[in-house]
Write a structure and sequence with these properties.
Shape: elongated
CATH class of the largest domain: Mainly Alpha
Mean pLDDT: 76
């Protein structure tokens, strides 16, 4: 798709706002896509996610265009939106990744705490005992704690993140408790 050449972003924005001119929107997108891609890469967006980040940034840009002040450079305004969007997406992606990985690999993390990287002839037996210990510790937690650890909660508010942290601490304490059944 060939985008028409616009003299500057301000005229393209005016044409988009006045008549929803798709050629003006396409020009804005194609002219500023490299800038958004650089920002996404700088914020550590995985290669498979770069196009999603670009799309999300431009969705936010087009929603916010009525609030754009022409006295400021469009590239700076776009950079702020791109940076904020990348930060939000990274927080969201990392948080979801930690939640699911935290539960799925929770036993493995606890096992590393206990056994380190030692190789012993009876590793399978030790691993089995520790998995049983982990399952018993998990069973001792409240339904809410198990729900948080399972990743069913997105834990987006500070209170939810604190609750998740405390649930992990309770699980760790139960797992390391002396005399706790293996």
């Amino acid at each position: 798709m060939n985008a028409t050449v616009e003299p500057d972003p301000a005229s393209a924005i005016q044409r988009w706002l006045a008549s929803r001119d798709e050629k003006a929107a396409a020009w804005l997108f194609h002219a500023h896509r490299p800038q958004v891609l650089r920002t996404a890469r700088a914020w550590g967006a995985p290669a498979w996610m770069e196009e999603d980040v670009v799309q999300e940034v431009f969705l936010r840009v087009f929603r916010a265009l009525p609030r754009f002040e022409p006295c400021m450079p469009f590239a700076h305004w776009l950079a702020v939106i791109a940076r904020n969007t990348c930060a939000k997406l990274r927080r969201h992606w990392c948080h979801r990744h930690k939640l699911s990985a935290g539960f799925a690999n929770g036993a493995e993390e606890l096992l590393k705490d206990v056994s380190g990287n030692q190789e012993a002839p009876d590793d399978r037996l030790i691993h089995k005992e520790q998995m049983t210990r982990f399952e018993h510790a998990l069973a001792q937690l409240s339904e809410r704690d198990r729900h948080l650890l399972a990743g069913h909660s997105t834990a987006q508010t500070p209170a939810q993140r604190v609750a998740l942290h405390r649930a992990r601490a309770r699980l760790r304490k139960l797992f390391h408790q002396p005399g706790f059944p293996p």
